Amino acid sequence: MVKIQIGQDAPQFTAKDSKGNDVSLTDFKGKILVLYFYPKDGSPVCTAESCEFRDKYEQFIKAGADVVGISTDSAQSHEEFTRKYKLPFTLLVDDNSELAKKYGVKKTLGLLPARETFVIDQNQKIVHKSSGLLNGTKHITESLDVIDKLKSQHQEPISQQ
């Protein structure tokens, strides 16, 4: 299993969104990206997490960041989840957990990918990562704090929790 280190280049990826479009890390070059892995569309904690990202989405945009969620759910599941909860950001399909593997996201109870969030700077370096299976919203505030620091500092690696 890959172990992602703060300061390293973010692993490159291309994956399908809920509409079947290819989305790549390079699409976000020059922007800050919050990449969050979550276990399952519609589960209570994942719904709370995604809705918290939705509710704070404008703060991310104003800070110059974009948000992308990733799970092993199907494109149809993502589309329904996005529509039901009015999510304004992209959800990517990680069919065979390939993205999770690239980012070192372990499986929970050996089944579903864990909950892990990465903040990737404008140069596509990992500047923050956090995880927490049962707390789906704490890392959202942490991510906003990291982005604020990025905007006011020299984009040095910031933290790992």
UniProtKB/TrEMBL annotation:
Family: Belongs to the peroxiredoxin family. BCP/PrxQ subfamily.
Subunit structure: Monomer.
GO cellular component terms listed in the entry, alphabetical order: cytoplasm
Family matches, as InterPro entries: AhpC/TSA (IPR000866), Peroxiredoxin_AhpC-typ (IPR024706), Peroxiredoxin_BCP/PrxQ (IPR050924), Thioredoxin-like_sf (IPR036249), Thioredoxin_domain (IPR013766)
Sequence ranges assigned to domain Thioredoxin in this UniProt record: 4-152
Main localization, broad class: plastid
EC primary class: oxidoreductase
SUPFAM superfamilies found in the cross-reference section: Thioredoxin-like
Keyword Chloroplast: yes
Domain of life: Eukaryota
Origin species: Tieghemostelium lacteum
Protein name per the record: thioredoxin-dependent peroxiredoxin
